[in-house]
Amino acid sequence: MLYYTYILECKDKTLYVGFTNDLEKRVHQHNNSKTGAHYTKIRRPVVLKYFETYKTFSEARKREIELQSWTRERKISLISQKV
What are phi and psi of 74, to 5 degrees? Predict the structure, then answer.
C-alpha cells in the first residue's frame, strides 16, 4: 500500500495539506463529503495541486506535519517545482 502527502488549493486560494492512502478518494471526499475536513468543506471546490508518494504511513504523516509548518510562499514554490 502507498501513502500520499498532498496539497490542495481551495476556492479562496488558501492551501490545505493532508495525507491519505487513497488520493483520488480523499480529494473526492474533500469536494463532496458531508463529513471530514471542516476547513475544506467550507472552501469548496478544492483542486489537487501537489502530492508525494511514500511507502509507509509514518513517512507520509511526518511529511504532512513538515509541510503544514511551511509558509504559503514555500508551499507555492514546492508546487511550482513539481510541474
Answer: -65, -40
pLDDT digit string, tens, across residues 51-79: 999 999 999 999 999 999 999 999 999 99
The CB density around residue 66, as the number of other CB atoms within 10 Å, is 11
Q: With beta carbons less than 8 A apart as the criterion, state whether 47 and 6 touch.
A: no
- Which 8-state DSSP code applies to residue 42? T
* Residue 83 predicted with pLDDT over 90: no
Can you give the residue range of the structural domain that contains 13? 3-81
pTM of the model: 0.96
CATH number for the domain harbouring residue 63: 3.40.1440.10
- Count of the separate structural domains present in the chain: 1
